[in-house]
Amino acid sequence: MQTDKVNIAIVDDHTLFRQGLAHLLTESNEINVLFDADNGADMIKKLPAYPLPDVILMDITMPVMNGYETTKWLKANHPGVNVLALSMFEEDTPIIGMLKSGAGGYMLKQSKAADLVNAIKGIASQSFYINELVSGKLLRNIQNNQPLKNAPIGLNPNELKFLELCCSDLTYKQIADMMNLSPHTIDNYREALFQKFEVKSRTGLVISALKNELIKI
Amino acid sequence: MQTDKVNIAIVDDHTLFRQGLAHLLTESNEINVLFDADNGADMIKKLPAYPLPDVILMDITMPVMNGYETTKWLKANHPGVNVLALSMFEEDTPIIGMLKSGAGGYMLKQSKAADLVNAIKGIASQSFYINELVSGKLLRNIQNNQPLKNAPIGLNPNELKFLELCCSDLTYKQIADMMNLSPHTIDNYREALFQKFEVKSRTGLVISALKNELIKI
DNA sequence: TTAAAAAAAGCTGATTTCACCCTATGCAGA
DNA sequence: TCTGCATAGGGTGAAATCAGCTTTTTTTAA
């Protein structure tokens, strides 16, 4: 019946995906899509105009305000709203990162629609939804009992800026100039990021950053 | 009326996107989605089971068989079927590349649904659909009258394999070992690809390959 | 079968990147 | 006040990467 429907919102920067998903979910008759938004900032702007959603489907990499920040904002300002992360990648970092930011579940865009509907219903009723993908990561996290990337998203604004400039044909020297910093300082950033991402080359860094949905190309 | 509907198929490896889009387009009442497929090989398998589509919406980067190959196969085996490329990027290379492969149009996944419906109807009736994105590229192609990347997709299997291995933490030496080639030969590939992509570093190469939808991470 | 083209392998040197070493400053908490 | 920590800056040397050119082998086409 109408009143039992789960009210959701969708935040993703690809219009066709977002609107397509809205139609797909609406057809399930168990979900009501209140609104959709292009990115976190857009969502914050639209939020007051609608009833508070039960669940928000959240993309991670988006322009202006990404999924990590937006989820943290939601938990600070509307702790009752549940967040279900939607991503293309199944790396440790974005999964743990989104959960730590406050998401109650993590689904791949390669999922089947029925599984997504289940996840939305689960998260609406229990505030979390642990699928195999997530439980596997959590289990390994415990079994290895080393903290296993539980704080890998801690990038300061300068490091993030550097990371973005890394994804280009620019040399480190050129990046240093663009950021008005000494090449040595840039080298510190490089060093720090190599350790955080456990990579040995700039290329590895770029690939990791993309898979961890920290940057967008 | 029913019989005027445009029959289409959707080929894309992200299930939620593909199915969402199918629902979205079905609602327009002008489009009938016959079937969808995970990649080119899957499409070829499913094609005989349905009436021949008027238009096929084609993603570019897909596992097993990508959009370029699949479009070429369609033009060779079912020249009457129109292909509309769907991509996240607006680089020259994939646009020109898909058009050369035989696509009749090119749309971004950031497009609005109404624009996509227009493109589908246009391509169904005229076999092509030239939006601003495509016409701009074509115009520049003529104005600069240098061939402007009209043959940038010409990678042999070894180069493609090398390109994929480049998107990692591996050193060139390790790549040479994995491909059972001398590091010097690898250096030749690197040199050739740097020229084709007009880049000066391995990082630039990786970013270009991703934007040109030649590889998938 | 011979010439041309392409692929593979090689060399050298300049530049960039990588890995470790260090110091100084400012700020928060014990 | 002292300590720890994060940020910023600096230096050195080894390794990897980049750029350009040459040679050999294989394939293709005339």
TrEMBL record, chains A, B:
Positions of the HTH luxR-type domain: 148-213
InterPro entries this protein is in? CheY-like_superfamily, NreC/VraR/RcsB-like_REC, Sig_transdc_resp-reg_C-effctor, Sig_transdc_resp-reg_receiver, Tscrpt_reg_LuxR_C, WalR-like
According to the entry, every stretch annotated as the Response regulatory domain falls at 7-124
An example Gene Ontology molecular-function term: DNA binding
A Pfam cross-reference name: Response_reg
Record keywords: DNA-binding, Phosphoprotein, Transcription, Transcription regulation
The Gene Ontology biological process annotation of the record reads: phosphorelay signal transduction system; regulation of DNA-templated transcription
- This protein's source sits in the domain of life called Bacteria
Any coiled-coil ranges, and where?
none
Q: Which residues carry this modification: 4-aspartylphosphate?
A: D59
Instruction: State what protein this is by name.
Output: Response regulator transcription factor
